[in-house]
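REQUEST ID: PR-0412
SUBMITTED BY: lab tech R.K.
PRIORITY: routine
TASK: structure prediction, single protein chain
INPUT:
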Amino acid sequence: MKSKQLNFFITEEDCVLINDFIKKNQGIIYGNHSLILESINSETHQLFLTHRNFIEDIVVNSTPKGIKYFDIGRSYLLEFSCRGFYPNDFNSLHRGRLYYIKSYYEDNFLIDKSNEFNKWCNDIFTFMKKNILNKYHLDKDYLYSASAIRWIEINSAKQTQDGLLWVKQ
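STATUS: complete
OUTPUT:
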Protein backbone atom coordinates (compact mmCIF):
# COMPACT_ATOMS: atom_id res chain seq x y z
CA MET A 1 0.00 0.00 0.00
CA LYS A 2 1.22 3.48 -0.86
CA SER A 3 -0.12 6.61 0.78
CA LYS A 4 0.63 10.28 1.27
CA GLN A 5 0.06 12.49 4.30
CA LEU A 6 0.40 16.16 5.20
CA ASN A 7 0.30 17.21 8.88
CA PHE A 8 -0.55 20.76 9.92
CA PHE A 9 -2.12 23.18 12.38
CA ILE A 10 -4.92 25.46 11.15
CA THR A 11 -7.84 27.35 12.65
CA GLU A 12 -11.44 27.84 11.51
CA GLU A 13 -10.34 31.09 9.90
CA ASP A 14 -8.55 29.01 7.23
CA CYS A 15 -11.61 26.92 6.38
CA VAL A 16 -13.08 29.63 4.13
CA LEU A 17 -10.12 29.43 1.73
CA ILE A 18 -10.14 25.63 1.82
CA ASN A 19 -13.90 25.51 1.14
CA ASP A 20 -13.56 27.89 -1.79
CA PHE A 21 -10.74 25.85 -3.31
CA ILE A 22 -12.59 22.55 -2.93
CA LYS A 23 -15.77 23.90 -4.52
CA LYS A 24 -13.87 25.63 -7.32
CA ASN A 25 -12.23 22.28 -8.10
CA GLN A 26 -15.53 20.37 -8.16
CA GLY A 27 -14.90 18.74 -4.81
CA ILE A 28 -17.51 17.06 -2.67
CA ILE A 29 -17.27 17.02 1.12
CA TYR A 30 -18.50 13.97 3.03
CA GLY A 31 -18.91 13.63 6.76
CA ASN A 32 -19.11 10.27 8.47
CA HIS A 33 -21.76 7.82 7.28
CA SER A 34 -21.55 9.17 3.69
CA LEU A 35 -23.42 12.40 4.50
CA ILE A 36 -22.65 15.15 1.96
CA LEU A 37 -21.81 18.46 3.65
CA GLU A 38 -22.01 21.98 2.27
CA SER A 39 -18.75 23.14 3.82
CA ILE A 40 -15.93 22.48 6.23
CA ASN A 41 -16.66 23.82 9.71
CA SER A 42 -15.58 23.51 13.32
CA GLU A 43 -18.31 20.99 14.12
CA THR A 44 -16.90 18.31 11.83
CA HIS A 45 -13.36 17.21 12.55
CA GLN A 46 -13.00 14.31 10.14
CA LEU A 47 -14.14 14.76 6.59
CA PHE A 48 -13.65 12.93 3.34
CA LEU A 49 -13.12 14.79 0.09
CA THR A 50 -13.54 13.62 -3.46
CA HIS A 51 -14.05 15.02 -6.92
CA ARG A 52 -17.42 14.59 -8.58
CA ASN A 53 -15.76 12.36 -11.19
CA PHE A 54 -14.82 9.81 -8.51
CA ILE A 55 -18.21 9.31 -6.83
CA GLU A 56 -18.59 5.88 -8.43
CA ASP A 57 -15.24 4.89 -6.92
CA ILE A 58 -16.38 5.30 -3.31
CA VAL A 59 -16.92 2.09 -1.35
CA VAL A 60 -19.29 2.20 1.63
CA ASN A 61 -19.40 -0.77 4.01
CA SER A 62 -21.78 -1.52 6.88
CA THR A 63 -21.24 -3.04 10.30
CA PRO A 64 -23.54 -5.87 11.49
CA LYS A 65 -25.56 -3.16 13.28
CA GLY A 66 -26.03 -1.24 10.02
CA ILE A 67 -23.59 1.58 10.71
CA LYS A 68 -22.11 2.77 7.43
CA TYR A 69 -18.47 3.69 6.93
CA PHE A 70 -16.11 4.35 4.06
CA ASP A 71 -13.58 1.77 2.94
CA ILE A 72 -10.81 4.37 2.89
CA GLY A 73 -8.37 1.89 1.32
CA ARG A 74 -10.37 1.18 -1.81
CA SER A 75 -12.33 4.43 -2.05
CA TYR A 76 -11.23 7.44 -4.03
CA LEU A 77 -11.32 9.66 -0.96
CA LEU A 78 -8.96 12.17 0.59
CA GLU A 79 -9.26 12.12 4.37
CA PHE A 80 -9.25 15.62 5.86
CA SER A 81 -8.93 15.81 9.62
CA CYS A 82 -9.20 19.55 10.04
CA ARG A 83 -8.86 19.65 13.82
CA GLY A 84 -7.95 23.12 15.04
CA PHE A 85 -10.19 23.76 18.05
CA TYR A 86 -12.82 21.39 19.36
CA PRO A 87 -16.22 22.96 20.02
CA ASN A 88 -16.32 24.57 23.45
CA ASP A 89 -12.54 24.18 23.92
CA PHE A 90 -10.47 27.06 22.64
CA ASN A 91 -7.56 26.31 24.98
CA SER A 92 -5.98 23.60 22.80
CA LEU A 93 -5.07 23.73 19.12
CA HIS A 94 -5.11 20.21 17.64
CA ARG A 95 -3.09 18.90 14.70
CA GLY A 96 -4.89 18.16 11.45
CA ARG A 97 -3.92 16.15 8.42
CA LEU A 98 -4.65 15.33 4.82
CA TYR A 99 -4.24 11.66 3.97
CA TYR A 100 -4.96 9.48 1.00
CA ILE A 101 -4.11 6.02 -0.23
CA LYS A 102 -2.55 5.82 -3.69
CA SER A 103 -2.71 2.04 -4.00
CA TYR A 104 -4.02 -0.91 -2.02
CA TYR A 105 -3.88 -4.70 -1.99
CA GLU A 106 -6.78 -6.84 -3.11
CA ASP A 107 -6.39 -10.63 -3.32
CA ASN A 108 -2.60 -10.22 -3.02
CA PHE A 109 -2.45 -7.83 -6.00
CA LEU A 110 -1.41 -4.21 -5.71
CA ILE A 111 -4.13 -2.00 -7.23
CA ASP A 112 -3.13 1.55 -8.16
CA LYS A 113 -5.74 4.28 -7.97
CA SER A 114 -6.05 6.42 -11.09
CA ASN A 115 -3.54 9.10 -12.04
CA GLU A 116 -6.44 11.57 -12.16
CA PHE A 117 -7.33 10.87 -8.52
CA ASN A 118 -3.70 11.14 -7.41
CA LYS A 119 -3.32 14.42 -9.30
CA TRP A 120 -6.51 15.83 -7.74
CA CYS A 121 -5.24 14.96 -4.25
CA ASN A 122 -1.79 16.39 -5.00
CA ASP A 123 -3.42 19.60 -6.21
CA ILE A 124 -5.07 19.98 -2.80
CA PHE A 125 -1.75 19.32 -1.03
CA THR A 126 -0.08 21.92 -3.26
CA PHE A 127 -2.84 24.46 -2.64
CA MET A 128 -2.49 24.01 1.13
CA LYS A 129 1.30 24.39 1.02
CA LYS A 130 1.29 27.43 -1.28
CA ASN A 131 -1.70 29.34 0.10
CA ILE A 132 -2.25 28.41 3.73
CA LEU A 133 0.64 26.53 5.35
CA ASN A 134 4.10 27.72 6.33
CA LYS A 135 7.04 26.48 8.36
CA TYR A 136 7.13 27.65 11.95
CA HIS A 137 10.45 28.22 13.68
CA LEU A 138 9.34 26.47 16.91
CA ASP A 139 8.45 23.21 15.15
CA LYS A 140 10.25 21.54 12.27
CA ASP A 141 7.84 18.58 11.96
CA TYR A 142 4.55 20.26 10.99
CA LEU A 143 3.27 23.13 8.88
CA TYR A 144 1.17 26.02 10.21
CA SER A 145 -1.33 28.55 8.95
CA ALA A 146 -0.75 32.21 9.82
CA SER A 147 -3.81 32.14 12.09
CA ALA A 148 -2.48 29.11 13.99
CA ILE A 149 0.89 30.79 14.52
CA ARG A 150 -0.86 33.97 15.66
CA TRP A 151 -2.97 31.99 18.20
CA ILE A 152 0.11 30.16 19.53
CA GLU A 153 2.06 33.37 20.01
CA ILE A 154 -0.77 35.48 21.46
CA ASN A 155 -1.58 32.74 23.97
CA SER A 156 2.03 31.75 24.76
CA ALA A 157 0.93 28.21 23.95
CA LYS A 158 3.18 25.24 24.58
CA GLN A 159 3.36 22.19 22.37
CA THR A 160 2.71 18.86 24.06
CA GLN A 161 5.50 16.31 24.08
CA ASP A 162 3.79 14.15 21.45
CA GLY A 163 3.48 17.23 19.19
CA LEU A 164 -0.22 16.71 18.51
CA LEU A 165 -1.51 19.89 20.13
CA TRP A 166 -0.65 23.29 21.50
CA VAL A 167 -2.06 24.27 24.88
CA LYS A 168 -2.85 27.82 25.96
CA GLN A 169 -0.81 28.92 29.00
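NOTES: The two ends are 41 Å apart (CA to CA).
REVIEWED BY: pending
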